[in-house]
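Consider the tokenized backbone below.
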């Protein structure tokens, strides 16, 4: 039992460290991606290829002067970015990063905590993050910050409905709220009417839920406040939106939380629609190299799927223009929401038809 607790603590520290490292170097990657797309060089002074630029930025944030506006609600002003950062870091707790391993006679999954309502936990914690934005925007006593906070709240409510319905379609197919169960279903070998058989690790939900995937992906952009849904910040209208009055590490927490949310959203998308840690012929590979090495290989490939998702977030940011606010609301309520309802009805009908 003590060994299992020690292993779990190690997994928690490793997952937390990877999350922070990815979020840190996402700032560097975003500058490099935007530079490449705009025919520029990007950061190249601090370290080879600018690799030390995130460290320099962190030092700058840490040593900048703290500033709290005279009219701000002091404790809420401090609590806002702390809550946003806390919610961002909590989300990864139930995500299965890898398959089953066997060490010192103890069997475990590369996962901090296996909850049988894992997807509800993720949804709840993601919804909690917007309160950090709302509290910070209101406590700043600045009209631009308040407008950004109101936008974030209304945007969150509008797009969580379609996101929740797209998840319901996946849950209907799996029959469980557990993220482990969702991944297990996707790594099983399946035969289609005896005509052909998908190899183990390739029964991905993206083949069954293409519309649900597009809906979830679109809503993930809105939940992360990323372009073209970055209306809560919208520098051309609101200066900096909800974090206009923030400086030093409080501003750093808000910016850092956004990159963590991008990475976690990419991992959740990979878990729900791209087989999680599954990969083609994973059962056959496990027979060749052993269960532990196969689990580590799945862990690495799962991180690769997440990193590609982060790149896709950046690619879209530097490709598409920002929506107007009325366009954002119309898309959420008049397009995504009806499509999500139709997707749930269609999924239910197909499940009944092929039972």
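A designed sequence for it:
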């Amino acid at each position: 039992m003590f060994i299992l607790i020690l292993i779990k603590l190690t997994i928690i520290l490793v997952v937390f460290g990877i999350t922070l490292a990815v979020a840190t170097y996402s700032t560097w990657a975003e500058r490099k991606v935007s530079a490449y797309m705009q025919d520029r060089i990007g950061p190249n002074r601090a370290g080879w290829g600018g690799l030390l630029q995130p460290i320099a930025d962190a030092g700058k944030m840490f040593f900048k002067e703290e500033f709290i506006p005279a009219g701000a609600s002091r404790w809420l002003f401090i609590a806002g970015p702390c809550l946003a950062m806390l919610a961002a870091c909590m989300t990864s707790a139930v995500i299965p990063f890898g398959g089953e391993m066997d060490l010192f006679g103890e069997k475990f999954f590369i996962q901090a905590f296996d909850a049988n309502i894992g997807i509800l936990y993720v949804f709840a914690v993601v919804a909690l993050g917007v309160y950090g934005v709302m509290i910070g925007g209101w406590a700043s006593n600045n009209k631009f910050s308040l407008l950004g906070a109101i936008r974030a709240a209304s945007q969150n409510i509008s797009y969580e409905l379609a996101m929740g319905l797209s998840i319901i379609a996946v849950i209907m197919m799996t029959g469980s709220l557990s993220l482990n169960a969702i991944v297990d279903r996707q790594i099983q070998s399946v035969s289609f009417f005896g005509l052909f058989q998908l190899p183990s690790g390739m029964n991905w939900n993206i083949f069954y839920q293409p519309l649900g995937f597009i809906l979830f992906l679109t809503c993930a952009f809105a939940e992360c406040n990323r372009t073209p849904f970055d209306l809560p910040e919208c520098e051309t209208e609101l200066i900096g939106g909800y974090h206009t009055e923030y400086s030093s590490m409080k501003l750093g927490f808000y910016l850092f939380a956004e990159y963590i949310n991008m990475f976690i959203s990419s991992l959740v998308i990979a878990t729900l629609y791209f087989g999680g840690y599954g990969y083609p012929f994973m059962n056959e590979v496990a027979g060749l190299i052993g269960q532990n090495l196969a689990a580590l290989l799945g862990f690495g490939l799962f991180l690769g799927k997440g990193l590609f998702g982060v790149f896709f977030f950046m690619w879209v940011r530097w490709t598409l223009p920002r929506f107007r606010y009325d366009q954002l609301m119309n898309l959420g309520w008049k397009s995504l929401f009806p499509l999500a309802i139709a997707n749930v009805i269609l999924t239910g009908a197909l499940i009944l038809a092929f039972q």
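The first helix runs from residue 2 to 37.
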